[in-house]
Amino acid sequence: MMNYVIVLLGVLLLGQCHQDALPEDQAQEPGFGTAFLLQKGEEVKVSGEAAGTLTLQLASLADSRCPKDVVCVWLGNATVVLNVSDADGQSQQVSFCIGDCRPDPVRNKHKVQVMLGKQAYDITLLEVLPVPNAESNETAKEVKVLVELV
Questions:
Q1: Superkingdom, according to UniProt (predicted)?
Q2: Residue 15's pLDDT band (boundaries 50, 70, 90)?
């Protein structure tokens, strides 16, 4: 009898374990202060309650970083250009570089402040993905970006 009670408790506990996931057709729009991925050519709208909508588009992506499983003479770098525009039609092109971006010191993320109209934004390039690997010839396809209101 005790074995049945233990099995029943186990089944009830396992039944409580589930993950709330959003259906794909209800994917959330990125917001200010939340990191998100952006693919080449893709356009993403970032919005929040305190400000209007900011649109980002990954215009170019070049990656010459040393693969993570190789010893290189030069660390290399990844350069990214984003087109940024606001709801009023003001736009700006912003360049980022991570890795060995001479004459700047080596960095693993890059923050740039952008001013559109009267609103300032901090845009941070957090990652270029995937990280180069000697076993895979996969090229960089997307970037991880964070946009914050200033």
A1: Bacteria
A2: low
